[in-house]
Structure to design on (187 residues):
């Protein structure tokens, strides 16, 4: 696999996300997704902080992994990685075998559409190519979701895990702002 010249990724601030799901809706509307499809979704987790239970949220989609399993298992080479690290799926090449969905540790690929072919976030590559932000980022009212170069985010001290998310050997391209305070994850 050819290594990209850079690696774009998402930077998420779990300290400020309010769980409004505007990112989900913006993605669904922009990509005109079928009702049961959500390339981006927001999960809710309960934590204990300062002896109080509190909900925190995790907005996630395809993490455009640095070593994407979907790409390595696809028998038709439907996945490619752009020079900016975005993993693109060519749905015309997809035969709906589901290997990519099974290989994704983050559940970012679905075959639930009417045509039963794979679908996933493309980081709105076509919008970025004309200088616009991905729909999910543009739709966030509290700016909890941003677009970053992963190397720059790592150098700035962003972290690789958050409540509800852990890094894997696939090297997902998502980073998180550090937590303000320590908290106990309740489930």
């Amino acid at each position: 696999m050819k290594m990209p010249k850079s690696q774009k990724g998402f930077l998420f601030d779990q300290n400020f996300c309010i769980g409004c799901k505007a990112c989900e809706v913006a993605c669904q509307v922009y990509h005109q997704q079928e009702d049961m499809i959500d390339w981006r979704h927001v999960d809710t987790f309960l934590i204990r902080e300062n002896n109080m239970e509190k909900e925190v949220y995790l907005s996630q989609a395809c993490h455009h992994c640095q070593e994407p399993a979907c790409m390595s298992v696809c028998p038709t080479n439907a996945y490619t990685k752009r020079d900016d690290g975005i993993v693109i799926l060519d749905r015309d090449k997809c035969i709906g075998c589901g290997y990519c969905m099974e290989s994704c540790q983050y559940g970012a690929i679905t075959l639930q559409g009417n045509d039963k072919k794979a679908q996933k976030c493309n980081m709105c590559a076509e919008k970025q190519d004309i200088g616009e932000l991905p729909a999910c980022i543009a739709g966030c009212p509290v700016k909890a979701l941003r677009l970053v170069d992963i190397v720059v985010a790592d150098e700035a001290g962003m972290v690789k895990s958050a409540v509800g998310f852990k890094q894997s050997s696939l090297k997902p391209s998502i980073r998180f702002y550090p937590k303000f305070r320590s908290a106990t994850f309740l489930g």
Notes: The first strand starts at residue 8 and ends at 12. The chain has a mean pLDDT of 93. The radius of gyration is 16 Å.
